[in-house]
Amino acid sequence: MVFQGEACKRQRLLSSSYEDNSRLIPSLPDEISIQIIARVPRISYLSLKSVSRAWKEAILSSELFCVRRELGTMEEWLYVLTKVNDDKLLWYALDPLSRRWQKLPPMPNVSSEDEVVKKGLAALPIRMWSMVGSSIRIADVIMN
Amino acid sequence: MAKTPEPKRTISLKPCDGDVIEVSPMIAKQMQTIQSFIEDDSFIATTTIIPLPNVTAFQLSKIIDYLNYHSNSKAVADNVKESTKKFDEEFLKELEHDKLKELLHAANYLNVKEVLDFLCQAVADLIQDKSVKFVRKFFGVVNDYSVEEEEDIRRTHAWAFEGVEED
């Protein structure tokens, strides 16, 4: 075992017993690959999920977040549910590290009027702050 | 565990190319793979040369350089942080993408945690803003998604692909 830390040991043992072709990175044990992925900012995970099925599985796994906790790179995001004009419900996420607001995919079975989507992300944060008001303090807490 | 006093002599490592490289026991100790050699009862420091068929002389010297620098700078406090940072930057500057990846393999083979941690971070920094295509190519990962599945992920997270460096 290269990396210490009892908490995740059993899971790591499981993951390192994979066959070569289902490895995250063919030339490296998954244990090391997870150490690399855990050091990438969370915001990159959404695109990294497309690398392969194994990557998607790893990114969604509790093992990865175990490692991130050990590394102290949890990166908590702030999620805000907003109700815009026509009772349309939208989730937004703030990544305090990159200070980027992201619109989450619309929830299924919720009316989907695309006009709000097309207005672009730039205008949204202001509206959101004014809607949620005191949540600035929440964001401050998370950033500390 | 009963231990004889640490021998003062150096440890001889033979990379797959080039000459034998001598390292201090303190440096050798940080390489778990070497450590297990040394702890073996039949190991005699004066005559035994440890062969490293998976490590090149270049990689071995890089790893030794890193360990040497960092073990020396540990003794001093905060004021060396700047120069350590500079050393780390210079260290990586000399490594092209492939060399970085190969050095990671070597560090993994030698099982040297400090260098592994450092290189994992370096590789993470390298891929964080790169396209999925770059990441696959860099690591030699085969895309096992169907075209439809991949398009589906892309569509669901369309915004996540904004601001990605082209390669």
TrEMBL record, chain A:
Pfam families, A to Z: F-box
PANTHER family: KELCH REPEAT SUPERFAMILY PROTEIN (PTHR46344:SF27), OS02G0202900 PROTEIN (PTHR46344)
Protein name per UniProt: F-box domain-containing protein
Sequence ranges assigned to domain F-box in this UniProt record: 22-68
Organism, scientific name: Lupinus luteus (European yellow lupine)
Keywords: Kelch repeat, Repeat
PROSITE patterns given in the database record: FBOX (PS50181)
SUPFAM superfamilies hit by this protein: F-box domain
Database matches in InterPro entries: F-box-like_dom_sf (IPR036047), F-box_dom (IPR001810)
Automatic annotation (TrEMBL), chain B:
Domain SKP1 component dimerisation, first and last residues per copy: 114-160
Gene Ontology BP terms: jasmonic acid mediated signaling pathway; protein ubiquitination; ubiquitin-dependent protein catabolic process
Keywords: Ubl conjugation pathway
Protein's pathway: Protein modification; protein ubiquitination
Signal peptide: none
All copies of domain SKP1 component POZ, residue ranges: 10-72
SUPFAM superfamilies xref list: POZ domain, Skp1 dimerisation domain-like
Residue intervals passing through the bilayer: none
Oligomer and partners: Part of a SCF (SKP1-cullin-F-box) protein ligase complex.
Xref: PANTHER family: SKP1
Function field: Involved in ubiquitination and subsequent proteasomal degradation of target proteins. Together with CUL1, RBX1 and a F-box protein, it forms a SCF E3 ubiquitin ligase complex. The functional specificity of this complex depends on the type of F-box protein. In the SCF complex, it serves as an adapter that links the F-box protein to CUL1.
Family: Belongs to the SKP1 family.
Protein name: SKP1-like protein
Organism field: Lupinus luteus (European yellow lupine)
